[in-house]
Design goal:
It is built from 2 helices and 10 strands. The chain has 211 residues and is an alpha+beta fold. The strands form 2 sheets. Strands 1, 2, 3, 4, 5 and 6 form a 6-stranded mixed beta sheet that branches. Helix 1 packs across helix 2. The longest helix is centred in the middle third of the chain and has 18 residues.
Length: 211
C-alpha cells in the first residue's frame, strides 16, 4: 500500500459539483492499494498516518507532533495512480495497482481502521473510483511519501565464525535469521572438488535481543 500524506490547513473533495467532505487543519491522505496488499498493510498504513510527526511543538521543535497530537482532522482519498509505472514510454502503466472488489474492500478497511484508531468524526473520506475534485491548502508545503514495506530494514552482519547471517527486522519487530553453514568466502575457489552441501535454517526472534 502506498500513500502521500500532505500537511494541510484545509482540504475538501467535490464530486459532480457537490461537496462530499471537508476538513480544517490536519492531514490529506492519497492512498492506493497494491495487488499483494493484505489487512496487515492496511493496519500498518492506518497507524502510520496517525503517528507521523508532521508539526512542530510549542517550543519550536520541528517534526514533533502528529495529527492526533494537534487534535487535527484526516481526509482520505483513494488514488490508484500513485502506483503507476513510468519506466517505458510516456503512458503510465497501472498494473501495479489492485483493481475491482479487492481494492475497494482494502481501501474501505483502511479508512475504517483510521477511524477506529482515532475519532470517527474527525476522519473523512472521498468517493471510491469517482472523478473527484480535490482542493487543498498545503501547509508548508509538507508532503510525505510512504509505502507499507518501507518499515522493513535490511542489515547484513558478517561473523568471525563460518556462518553468514542475514537479519530482517520487520514492522512487527520480529527478526528472521537465515544461517548458511558452509558459505564460500569471497574470492576463494573450492579446491577440494565438488561444492559441499549447504544447509540453511530460519528462526524468528524478538528484535530486542539484538540490542
Amino acid at each position: 500500500m502506498k500513500a502521500i500524506l500532505q500537511r494541510v490547513a484545509s482540504a475538501s473533495v467535490t464530486v459532480d459539483a457537490q461537496l462530499i467532505s471537508s476538513i480544517g487543519k490536519g492531514v490529506l491522505v492519497f492512498a492506493a492499494v497494491a495487488p499483494e496488499d493484505t489487512v496487515k498493510e492496511v493496519e500498518s498504513m492506518a497507524a502510520k498516518v496517525l503517528k507521523m510527526k508532521m508539526w512542530p511543538d510549542d517550543a519550536g521543535g520541528t517534526w514533533k507532533r502528529s495529527v492526533q497530537d494537534i487534535n487535527g482532522e484526516v481526509l482520505c482519498v483513494s488514488q490508484f495512480t500513485l502506483l503507476a509505472s513510468t519506466k517505458k514510454g510516456s503512458k503510465p502503466d497501472f498494473h501495479g495497482a489492485a483493481g475491482g472488489e479487492k481494492a475497494r474492500e482494502l481501501y474501505d478497511a483502511f479508512v475504517i481502521k483510521v477511524q477506529e484508531l482515532y475519532e470517527k468524526a474527525k476522519v473523512k473520506d472521498g468517493v471510491f473510483q469517482a472523478m473527484m475534485q480535490v482542493n487543498l491548502q498545503n501547509d508548508g508545503p509538507v508532503s510525505v511519501n510512504y509505502q507499507s514495506h518501507d518499515a522493513e530494514v535490511y542489515q547484513t552482519i558478517s561473523l568471525l565464525c563460518p556462518r553468514f547471517i542475514r537479519i530482517l527486522i520487520s514492522i512487527s519487530e520480529q527478526v528472521t535469521l537465515e544461517i548458511q553453514t558452509n558459505p564460500t568466502k569471497v574470492g576463494e575457489k573450492n579446491k577440494s572438488g565438488p561444492a559441499k552441501e549447504e544447509k540453511e535454517s530460519e528462526y524468528d526472534l524478538p528484535a530486542e535481543l539484538l540490542e
